[in-house]
Specification:
Chain B: Keywords: Membrane, Oxidoreductase, Transmembrane, Transmembrane helix. Chain B: One of its GO terms (molecular function) is oxidoreductase activity. Chain B: One of its GO terms (cellular component) is cytoplasm. Chain B: This is FAD dependent oxidoreductase. The complex is a heterodimer of chains A (about 90) and B (about 375). Chain A has about 90 residues and is mainly alpha-helical. Chain A has helices spanning about 15-25, 30-35, 50-60, 65-70, and strands at about 5-10, 15, 80. A two-stranded antiparallel ribbon of chain A has the order 1-2. In chain A, helix 1 (about 15-25) crosses helix 3 (about 50-60). Chain A is elongated and about 50 Å long. The N and C termini of chain A lie far apart (about 55 Å). Chain B is of the alpha+beta class and about 375 residues long. Chain B folds into two domains: about 1-50 and about 150-220 and about 310-365, FAD/NAD(P)-binding domain, CATH 3.50.50.60; about 75-145 and about 220-305, D-Amino Acid Oxidase, subunit A, domain 2 (D-Amino Acid Oxidase, Chain A, domain 2, 2-Layer Sandwich), CATH 3.30.9.10. In chain B, about 25% of the residues lie in helices and about 30% in strands. Chain B is built from eight helices and 19 strands. Chain B has helices at about 15-25, 60-80, 95-110, 120-125, 150-160, 205-210, 275-285, 335-350; strands at about 5-10, 30-35, 50, 80-85, 85-90, 115, 135-140, 145, 165, 170-180, 180-185, 190-200, 220-230, 240, 245-250, 255-260, 295-305, 315, 325. In chain B, the strands form three sheets. In chain B, strands 1, 2, 9, 10, 11, 12, 18 and 19 form an eight-stranded mixed sheet that branches. An eight-stranded mixed sheet of chain B has the order 6-7-5-14-15-16-13-17, with helices on both faces. A three-stranded antiparallel sheet of chain B has the order 3-8-4. In chain B, strand 11 and strand 12 form a beta hairpin. The longest helix of chain B is centred in the first third of the chain and has 21 residues, at about 60-80. The radius of gyration of chain B is 21 Å and the shape is globular. The N and C termini of chain B lie far apart (about 40 Å). In chain B, about 50% of the residues are buried. Classes of the chains: A mainly alpha (about 90), B alpha+beta (about 375). The interface of A and B includes residues 35 and 90 of A. Bound molecules: flavin-adenine dinucleotide. Flavin-adenine dinucleotide binds near residues 12 and 335 of chain B. Flavin-adenine dinucleotide binds next to helix 1, strand 13, strand 17 and helix 8 of chain B.
């Protein structure tokens, strides 16, 4: 299949071809690749795309998957509307 | 690993990378950059990307005027998304308006075209904002924003192509000295020998300098920020609510980024606090009636590396002739990075500085009691 038509990151519309080109340019660590293409920075926060990207990276660089895949999950994990935090203040008990 | 280099830069944040860029442009490329984790992993990737010259000290103003001239040039050279969308300070108290009148006078003396604007004018620049609580705003049209990811990555790609060696996942443990000269750095992978060393390690700088008894008064203060889903451009300026020391900016990719001030102890781990989300929501949903329905994507914390006078520590270290520092940006290192990178390159090559007052920011000012004054620090 044409790598330009294989979408790896749906939130930011990044294709397999985009990823392979970036790796060829020298973006061979997942953190830099993520910032360069914005993979995993959309609403899914990497749930669908980061594992796939790490696999592509492993295949192309020959590095181990475990070596490459060190994701950082940030709260609130799923997108949540501001209205849930309004007009109340949070106090520790 | 034994490596020898003319210049070792510790820290692949925006400051280290920019310095290397200006050196490479002048034909100096025998440079190694050593980075604890990955490039940008410190303050740089956590920043709000804001850029302004409207400060209240001559040092900051001159440094930032130079930076604001350099940003569009760098943006063209390295394909960095950058926009002069301005800043607006939102003022809700009479005493703040009085204070800002004085600040605006100071700016005009130094060719910064800020101006006091009315709530109606604020609404013209920022459609959909509620201004019921506001008395006035201060508009800085020269201010702007840039992509922190692409500023770093595109310049990094450029300097690597020009021969700069970048070693990642390699912390520096200590500096190595001989006869009052720094001769290298001990890393997790062995010693890197260097003729000159620049410490640009952000929040890690103090620890590194401590290893040779150089005690700079740097404090790492945790700061909080969040970003929402991306939208089409709605307003250009970065908005600062002066009363609460909180800001909102629609970054160039489209997300709304909010930073708000909550009390934190220096040098504590930058942990997430749920009260921050309540604080940010309560401040900004009052201004924007649509904001309650916008979704928060991510929340993170990072450090401001603070100095006692909230000005950076830039320059050569007197006690060690071949050691340089560039840190302590007190929350403004991203915007200054072009001017600081250029100035550090000049220092390292022994060339003349073209920014007035830059020597006032030397590391020795703390021991000599020559602190610089600045009041417009927020967030
Ligand atoms: C929430 C937030 C919002 C901000 N908003 C803005 C803004 O709008 N505008 C602005 O101008 N600035 C802003 N800043 C400040 C800005 O991010 C920093 O001043 C700037 O990124 C500093 O760059 P740096 O290169 O000095 O440090 P860093 O980016 O921290 O880089 C230093 C590097 O050194 C590495 N390092 C540390 N210790 C060691 C070691 N022992 N060995 C090897 N490497 C080491 C780190 O891993 C890091 O990558 C903000 C900061 C935060 C936290």
């Amino acid at each position: 299949m044409d790598p330009r038509k294989v979408i790896v990151c749906r939130c930011e519309n990044v294709s397999l071809a985009n990823i392979e080109e970036a790796i060829d340019k020298g973006y061979t660590d997942l953190e830099s690749l993520k910032r360069y293409l914005r993979i995993g920075m959309g609403p899914c926060q990497g749930r669908y795309c980061l594992v796939l990207t790490a696999k592509i990276l492993a295949r192309k660089t020959g590095k181990k998957f475990e070596e490459l895949f060190m994701p950082m999950n940030r709260p609130p994990l799923t997108p949540i509307e501001f209205k849930f935090f309004m007009n109340k203040s949070f106090t520790k008990r | 690993m034994t490596l020898k280099t003319k210049l070792l830069i510790i820290g692949a944040g925006i400051i280290g990378v920019m310095t290397a860029k200006f050196l490479v442009d002048k034909g100096f490329n025998d440079i190694v950059i050593v980075e604890k984790k990955y490039p940008g992993s410190g303050g740089t990737y956590r920043c709000a990307t804001g850029i302004r010259a409207s400060f209240t000290s001559l040092e900051h103003v001159e440094l930032m005027k130079r930076s604001i001239n350099l940003w569009p040039i760098l943006s063209k050279q390295h394909n960095i998304p950058y926009k002069r969308g301005g800043y607006i300070w939102l003022l809700s108290r009479p005493e703040h308006v009085e204070l800002f009148k004085k600040i605006v006078d100071f700016h005009h003396k130094h060719d910064i075209p800020t101006k006091i604007i009315s709530p109606e004018e604020i609404r013209e620049i920022v459609p959909t904002i509620r201004t019921d609580n506001l008395l006035a705003g201060v508009y800085d049209p020269l201010a702007g924003k840039a992509s922190c990811f692409l500023s770093l990555l595109n310049i990094l790609e450029y300097i690597k192509k020009k021969g700069v060696k970048v070693i990642i996942n390699t912390p520096v443990y200590k500096l190595v000295t001989r006869n009052h000269k720094v001769v290298g750095a001990m890393t997790s992978k062995g010693v890197i020998e260097a003729e000159k060393i620049l410490v640009a390690a952000g929040h890690g700088s103090k620890k590194i300098l401590d290893t040779i008894g150089l005690d700079l008064p740097l404090e790492n203060i945790p700061k909080h920020a969040l970003i929402t889903e991306a939208y089409k451009p709605l307003f250009d300026p970065l908005l600062i609510d002066w009363q609460t020391s909180s800001y909102i900016v629609q970054v160039l990719h489209g997300g709304f980024l909010i930073g708000a001030n909550i009390e934190e102890k220096p040098n504590t781990p930058p942990t997430n606090r749920i009260d921050y989300l309540f604080l940010a929501a309560n401040i900004w949903t009052k201004y924007f009636p649509w904001l309650p329905y916008v979704r928060v994507l991510r929340y993170w914390t990072g450090y401001y590396v603070m100095t006692p006078d909230h000005h950076p520590v830039i320059g050569p270290v007197e006690e060690y002739e071949n050691l340089y520092v560039a840190t302590g940006f007190s929350g403004h290192g991203f915007m200054m990075s072009p001017a600081v990178g250029e100035a550090m390159a000049n220092y390292i090559l022994g060339q003349k500085q073209n920014i007035p007052y830059i020597e006032n920011l030397s590391p020795e000012r703390f021991t000599k009691g020559k602190l610089v004054k600045e009041i417009a620090v927020f967030g």
